[in-house]
Specification:
Layout (H helix, E strand, L loop, with lengths): L5 H14 L7 H8 L3 H17 L4 E5 L5 E5 L4 H15 L5 E2 L3 E2 L2 H4 L2 H15 L6 E5 L4 H11 L3 E4 L10 E7 L6 E7 L8 E9 L3 H12 L3 E11 L11 E10 L4 E6 L4
Helix pairs in contact: 1-3, 6-7
Length: 271
């Protein structure tokens, strides 16, 4: 391959950084890949940094020293995030999403890669100060959302399940009480998924009474790990008192009128 032109290097550099959020690349890696001097690469990095930040498409960080390098931090401007969440609230308010029992159909949105990636970045921007070692969710509807939150943080995803699977190996099991049915259920997680001292961010799509979230907290604590945050896409207004506290939700489902076919959902302001 011949020597690349500057525009070609900048495009390739942008692609590599954006495809690997939070990953720290050494300058020598890119110098070798593009066959350029460090001074030339520094100018290319500055161009990428300026372009992305100018349009609110994320940040490029450079770290000095022998262990330093360059990395991409995904995210958008606060206004763009607000507009995205309000647009999503309108989609969630569509009457054809009403399910029996006053719940909402959200699978199509959470399984839409464009929406899930964007939500992952919104969650990461809100909780980046927590610096989690992993993201945890429970099967199954919350998996797409949690996976893209984990990608935005560049950390592993841990999935708690309601049954033991031979493919998971040895597991840690706890019993918890479902807040909606008051039935005792079981939650299991592979023993090798978490280690003592790991910082865990719990992520799920919907929280009603918080029983499942409480179960995940107990499961994390059972192995000696630490829950640093609890984040949910939607919380229901009823019941008012949840089985967990110190959590964050992005939307509040205030009312679902099945007869009138109306949904009242609001964006919870970031404080």
């Amino acid at each position: 391959m011949g020597r690349a032109k500057r525009m070609e290097r900048v495009v390739a550099l942008t692609k590599l950084l954006v495809d690997h959020p939070q990953q720290l690349f050494s300058f020598s890696y890119f110098c070798k890949k593009f066959e350029v001097a460090k001074s030339t690469l520094s100018e290319d990095v500055l161009a990428v940094k300026s372009g992305l930040e100018l349009f609110g498409l994320g940040r490029v960080e450079t770290l000095a020293g022998a262990a330093g390098g360059v990395r991409f931090i995904p995210g958008h401007s606060a206004k763009d995030d607000e507009d995205f969440l309000r647009d999503l609230a309108l989609k969630l308010s569509s009457a054809d999403r009403i399910l029996p029992g006053g719940m909402l159909y959200t699978t199509d949105l959470l399984c839409n890669p464009e929406v899930a990636v964007r939500l992952g970045e919104v969650f990461m921007s809100r909780f980046k100060h927590l610096e989690p070692d992993c993201v945890m969710t429970v099967e199954t509807r919350g998996i797409p959302l949690a996976l893209f939150v984990a990608r935005a943080f560049n950390v592993p995803l841990v999935i708690a399940r309601h049954d033991n699977y031979i493919t998971e190996g040895s597991t840690v099991n706890i019993n918890y009480v479902s807040s909606s049915t008051k039935v005792i259920r079981t939650m299991a997680m592979p023993k090798r998924a978490l280690h003592p001292g790991n910082k865990v961010l719990i992520v799920d799509d919907v929280m009603k009474g918080g029983g499942t979230a409480r179960g995940m907290v107990d499961l994390v604590e059972e192995v000696g790990a630490v829950v640093v945050g609890k984040a949910f896409l939607v919380e229901t207004a009823v019941p008012e008192h949840k089985m967990v506290d110190d959590y964050t939700a992005f939307f509040r489902l205030k009312d679902v009128d099945e007869e009138a076919r109306k949904i009242l959902i609001e964006v919870i302001e970031n404080k």
